[in-house]
Amino acid sequence: MKKFLVLSFAAAALLLTARPLLSDDGKPAGGEPKVPADTEPGPEHEVMAKWSGSWDKTIKIWMKRGGKPFEMTSSAEIKMVMEGRFSRQTSSSDMGGTKYSGESTIGYDGTTKKWCIFAIDNMGTAATYLEGTSADGGKTIEFKGMMTEATKGTQIHTRWVQTEKGPDEILMEMFTGEGKDQVKMMEITSKRKK
Asked: Is residue 24's pLDDT more than 70?
């Protein structure tokens, strides 16, 4: 009974504290909250919306500098989420007998004027978050940041460049390292399914 009374008093105190935030008609005091214009989808989000659909992917992975790439194919679905604010891609493939699943979300932050990408997959527990810029409104986006090097568990510099080759083809190139030590680790060519 004591616990019930304490919880009841705590709930009443919370309601009394929150009451000044509401007017007599139960609406927020000071009127409806206004969403700043730079948090609404803009032209960059219209570019992302054009990526929506089903895609076939050809992937090349370089295990060492100058070596022959390992090649595989994949399929992907891209759709806009969060009321048109983000483009989410889900991919799947057979990687030498192992089922691969990956997800990436690309966005454009109207407040910072930066692009961003967040990527995860079922091959590890590390997530990658990179920020980017574009000089052509999103047709070519260069993302930079750090990612976890899987075999050592250390953070390494990475750069990903996404280029629209046309309305039905997108190229993503991924590099590790910096300056003269930079090396291409992966190349993904996505072609829209007809």
From this structure: no
pTM for the whole structure: 0.78
Q: Write the DSSP string, 65-82.
A: TTSPPEEEEEEEEEEEET
CA-CA distance, 14 to 140, in Å (whole number)? 50
Whose tokens are 């007809």? That residue is 194
Q: Which of 130, 133, 83, 82 is nearest to 104 (CA)?
A: 130
pLDDT tops 50 at residue 5: no
Asked if residue 53 lies in contact with residue 47, where contact means CB atoms within 8 angstroms, the answer is no
Per-residue pLDDT reduced to its tens digit, 132-184: 999 999 999 999 999 998 778 889 999 999 999 999 999 999 999 988 889 99
- Report in angstroms the alpha-carbon separations of 98 from 55, 59, 61, 177: 21, 15, 16, 28
Q: How many CA atoms lie within 13 A of 159 on its CB side?
A: 13
- Return residue ranges of the chain for CATH 2.40.128.20: 38-192
Looking at the DSSP assignment, which residues form a beta bridge with residue 187? 60, 173
Q: Which fold has domain 38-192?
A: Lipocalin (2.40.128)
